[in-house]
Amino acid sequence: MSGLKLFRTDATNGGVTEVMPRLAEVEADVQGLVEAHMETLLGVRFLASEYGTGPVHGGRIDSLGLDENGSPVVVEYKRGTDAGVINQGLFYLAWLMDHRAEFERAVRDRLGVTAASQVLWSGPRLICIAGDFTRYDVHAVREHRRSIDLVRYRLFGDGLLGLETVASVSGGMPVARRARRQAVARAAVGVEGAAMGELAGAVDEVLLGLGDGVNRVDRKTYRAYQRLRNFACLCPPQRSKLLVYLKVDPKDVDLVPGFTRDVSGLGHHGTGDLEVQLRTVRDVERAQDLFRASYAAA
């Protein structure tokens, strides 16, 4: 992986031994490993492997999945570097958009009727997992109006897998950050008042500003901020507060009544076990370390 070195420490003599990275023997080894642990590794629920696209189209999608927000996901794998992986994935993504009913049947058969009824067709995703990518690949994904993640893998020693997000872009045309903040605020003003609208805009700006690879996905009941996986979910403003759910283990946080809450096992919109309650801009400043921790974990 670019710039990353992994060492095994020896507690007995205080020495360290470098664990050398390697590629898989064959592409199928990477595919099998990811499919067996797709939700843990990518935040995507596995649907199908080597999914046939019919005699006319004549292709096979490496993996089909559904992400945390209900977006359809196509995953394509390459053992090493392959200039065709992005175009191949986009080819299958276009097929998927033309066969929505077929995909929803696959979701229903694997995950149930409720999941099939909540598929989010506004944000289909392509995840390419390969041994490496070129600078031309990174440039190419930024020119497309699709949600695409380029993920570099490496195997270390026996039983260690490393994944690195090389590039991540969201679908649609980019919008200036200030314009995004104003749009969020305007959407909330008519319902919850100007103060909550401004607060929602401030949270939106902070979360989007955590890194270049942050994508935003809007659902009816929450707004997800995603870095390959969700790291924050912002719920619509209540009368006097905003609720943000983070992928931070509540056991690692000193919980403060009225500010942070452990919601493990409790039903709520969005994803994440740590609830953060925001009432003022000062609360947003207090929460920034938690935001950064969740972003890093994703």
Brief rundown of the structure:
It is built from 11 helices and 15 strands. With 298 residues, it is of the alpha+beta class.
The largest sheet, given as strand count, sense and whether it forms a barrel, is: 7 strands, mixed
Uncertain runs with pLDDT below 50, 5 residues or more? 173-179
The share of residues in extended strands comes to 25-35%
* Secondary-structure class: alpha+beta
Mean pLDDT: 89
DSSP helical segment count: 11
Number of strands: 15
What separation lies between the terminal Cα atoms? 18 Å
3D structure, described in words:
The protein is α+β, with helices and mostly antiparallel strands and 298 residues long. Helices cover 35% and strands 30% of the residues. It has helices at residues 27-36, 38-42, 54-57, 85-97, 100-111, 113-117, 135-143, 177-192, 194-208, 281-286, 288-297; strands at residues 6-9, 16-19, 21-22, 44-52, 60-67, 72-78, 125-130, 147-156, 160-169, 215-218, 223-227, 229-234, 242-246, 260-262, 274-278. Strands 3, 4, 5, 6, 7, 8 and 9 form a 7-stranded mixed beta sheet that branches. It has a 6-stranded antiparallel beta sheet with strand order 10-11-12-13-15-14. Helix 8 packs antiparallel against helix 9 (194-208). The model is unreliable at 173-179 (pLDDT under 50).
